[in-house]
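hiii so um. not sure if this is the right channel but i have a protein structure encoded as tokens and i wanna go backwards to a sequence. like what aa goes where. can anyone help
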């Protein structure tokens, strides 16, 4: 669960979040709104990428302001441009980086087990034949699958996806949608592909830094369409 209590935030004295309060406990939650509505800033407060100026955010019972490192270890975050998320030269190295030990905690066991786990994950995401290829030469869809692999291999309890299908064609949009549907973790999805939210439990509509509608997709999406048409 993520609990937001009267969250405010500004950039250069320009308010981007205005008193947002919500309890996010459902398994599949969508957040929609026009560009500049504040949804990306809100999502970044969930794991401490943004610390609000006022108000509190608790993720999995942890105060994000005080326990940022612990929260980030349990909340995976995916960005619209997967290229910005890929930091190693090859897919195998990028996934292996996620398995490196943090502090005293070691993910993936000894080196041999890490290599086996990397191979398993790359195969799961259709990248087995590209394990040692230059990561930045992958297609947009392959890069997004690599971003998924590198985040999900850490076994986060919550996955936040900030418009992960923006740069993808229809085939890869459908692939991302099926991947998200198969996950056991709580998923919070920011998207302009509104049909991806059809089977979600709850959708928040944001406008001018505030949540202006909160309800099931069948009600939230028409509300947003009407809002956008004004």
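sure thing!! here u go:
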């Amino acid at each position: 669960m993520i609990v937001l209590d009267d969250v405010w935030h500004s950039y250069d004295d320009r308010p981007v979040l205005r008193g947002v309060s919500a309890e996010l406990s459902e398994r599949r939650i969508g957040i929609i709104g026009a560009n500049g509505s504040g949804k990306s800033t809100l999502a970044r407060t969930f794991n401490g990428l943004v610390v609000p100026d006022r108000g509190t955010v608790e993720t999995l019972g942890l105060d994000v302001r005080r326990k940022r490192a612990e929260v980030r270890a349990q909340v995976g975050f995916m960005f619209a441009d997967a290229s910005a998320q890929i930091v190693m030269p090859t897919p195998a190295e990028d996934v292996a980086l996620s398995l490196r030990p943090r502090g005293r905690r070691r993910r993936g066991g000894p080196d041999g087990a890490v290599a086996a786990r990397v191979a398993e994950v790359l195969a799961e995401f259709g990248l087995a034949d590209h394990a040692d290829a230059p990561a930045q030469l992958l297609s947009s869809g392959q890069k997004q699958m690599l971003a998924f692999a590198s985040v999900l291999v850490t076994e986060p309890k919550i996955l936040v996806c900030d418009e992960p299908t923006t740069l993808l064609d229809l085939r890869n949009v459908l692939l991302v949608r099926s991947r998200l549907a198969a996950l056991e973790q709580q998923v919070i999805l920011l998207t302009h592909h509104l049909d991806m939210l059809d089977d979600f439990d709850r959708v928040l509509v944001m406008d001018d830094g505030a949540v202006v509608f909160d309800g099931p997709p069948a009600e939230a999406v028409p509300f947003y369409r009407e809002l956008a048409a004004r």
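oh and Confidence is low (pLDDT under 50) at residues 103-110.
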